[in-house]
Structures are given as structure tokens and as C-alpha cells.
Amino acid sequence: MLRRKISTTYTVTKQTRRGTLSMANGMILPPNKWELHDPFLMCAEDWFRHPGGFDLHPHRGFETVTIVFDGLLRHQDSKGNSSIIGPMQWTTTGRGLLHKEVPADKETNVHLMQLWLNLPREQKLIEASYQDLTKDIIPTREIKSSNKAESSKVQQTGEEEELAAKIRVISGTSGNIKGPAKNIVPVKALDISILEPNFTLEEPIPANYNMFIYILEGNGSFGDDNTKLQSGNVLISSPLRNDDCNEESVLKITNEGVNVLRVILFAGKPIREPVVQHGPFVGNEWDDIIRAQKDFYLGKFAEL
Questions:
Q1: CATH placement of domain 139-179+185-268
Q2: What angle (nearest 5°) sits at the alpha carbon of residue 189, between those of residues 231 and 37?
Q3: Is 229 exposed, middle or buried (0-12, 13-18, 19+ CB in 10 A)?
Q4: Residues at the annotated binding site for Fe cation?
Q5: What is the pTM (predicted TM-score) of this model?
Q6: Which residues participate in the annotated binding site?
Q7: How far is it, in rounded angstroms, from Cα 27 to Cα 47?
Q8: 246-294 residue pLDDT tens
């Protein structure tokens, strides 16, 4: 089986936005580097409290994936969806959507990451839709330190096995557990916590997928070259195959610290199409952006 190596690493820098202390962000995946992490367009980490947040704004041509780490975030959109995001939402903006994401109250501090996921040309203008991925529908895979057993059964000695790692499976599969997110572009999305110091997790990743990891807390070594990274670092691993093969590769992650190593992993099949992005609109050519702007100003994205 092919072994994953790390092709690019960098550090997220937190910056204050809008000239106010109520909102700050850091770019996990900077925009305008589509070919480096296709099908992922952009990913940001945000911290804010009232009056910060993202008030009413349009989108077209891609999907947004939001993971809330702390706080309560209220979502509303022009398709009639309204919810408190916890811990995730997956929105297909398709042909056009208006939405807003703001703190649920004036006291809560919100910490989240939002990913923009591209759509292929033939599906950029599909009907918009919304998936509210609540805690009770995201399954968790538990990995025990005794022979990496994946059950809560006690050992023959009668002693309970130690929990070495747990993986929230958001999209795709890990082990025999499948995530609830419905995808247009094939994506594997995992929230991984390695609890045991020096424990090594080996996670299969399709060999023709692009992959990135954001280290949320702790420090560890990654890939077959044991690249050492810590909280706030990002790594990218390029596809090992460029065809439609079903071959798997293996990513190795080791917790190098005494505390928990928590990482967010996204891997997706590259679309390999031209990308034009202007503000909240994504297309394959500039004519797509012009049409999006015209439709927005004509009120075709509906209203809240």
C-alpha cells in the first residue's frame, strides 16, 4: 500500500478583522492556490463575538462546510433553514443562496473553521441545500490501545482497554464507520483526537485524493517522513495517483506530546477544472461571475 508524505506545511496567523476586536481570523487554506489543494478552495479559522459574525450575504457555485469548536452559531438562509449549528453544517450553495451566520447571543464567544469546497462545472448551478450535522448523528470510531481493538469489550484479564484515539467521522469512512454528510464531490472528513502519548494511528486515504490537515491542539509527527508539527500548523499531502483508481494510501499520525493531539482532516478527489472566484461567487470562467452578479442584483437568490 502507498504511504503518504507531506508536500507542504505552514502556520496559521491570527489577525484582527474589520478593525475591531470583536472578530479575528486566520487562513488555513489561502485562496487563489486552487491547484495546490483542489477541490478545496479556501479554509479559514474565525474567532468572534457579537457584533461580529457573517451577516446576510450571497454565495454561488460551491459548498461551505462549517465546524464550530466553541460557542453557539445561528444559521439562517433563503431556503427557509434556521438552526443553531452544533457542531457542523454542510451547505450546498449551488445556483444561489443568501445566508447569515452570527453568534446565537450577545455573550457567546464563537470559534469555528469554514471550508469552501468546489463543485464541478455540471453541478455548479444545482438547487441549494443544507445539512445540519448535529452531535447525535456524527458517529465516533474508538480505537483501543490493546491491539488497536475497536470495541468497548474488556480484555480476557478483566481489565478495561485504554482508549487511545477517537475519530468523529463526518464524511466518508474510517474503519467500518461511515459519516452522515452527503457529498457531491467525494470527500473524507474526520475530527481525530489521539489521546495516548506516542500512539500511532494509520488512516487509509484514497491514493488519488488531495488531503490537508489542520492541527487544532497538541503536537505530533505526520506522514511516512515523520514531519513534526504542532498546534496552528497546516499540512498538505498531494495525490499519489492521478487516475480514477480505487487504490488506498496510508497516512501515519503519531501523538508526540503528553496531551491530546487533535486534528481536522479533509481529503477530496480533485476536480481538475479552471476556477474563477470573485467575492462570494465561484465559476469556471468570468462569464459565470458576471451572471451570478446579475442574478443576485435581480433578486433571484430569494430573501430571508
A1: 2.60.120.10
A2: 75
A3: buried
A4: 57, 59, 99, 101
A5: 0.91
A6: 57, 59, 99, 101
A7: 12
A8: 899 999 999 999 999 999 999 999 999 999 999 999 999 999 999 999 9
| Residues 195, 212 contacting (CB under 8 angstroms) | no
CA atoms within 13 A on the CB side of 161: 18
In one letter, which amino acid is 265?
Answer: L
What percent of the chain stands above pLDDT 90? 77
Residues with Cβ < 8 Å from 160, sequence gap 6 or more?
154
CA angle 22/18/11 to nearest 5° reads 85
CA distance 4 to 237: 7
β pairing state of 248-255 and 2-3: parallel
- Which listed CATH number (2.60.120.10, 3.10.560.10, 3.40.50.150, 3.90.1170.20) goes with 40-136+274-297? 2.60.120.10
Q: Which residues fall within 8 angstroms of residue 158, CB to CB, at 6 or more apart?
A: none
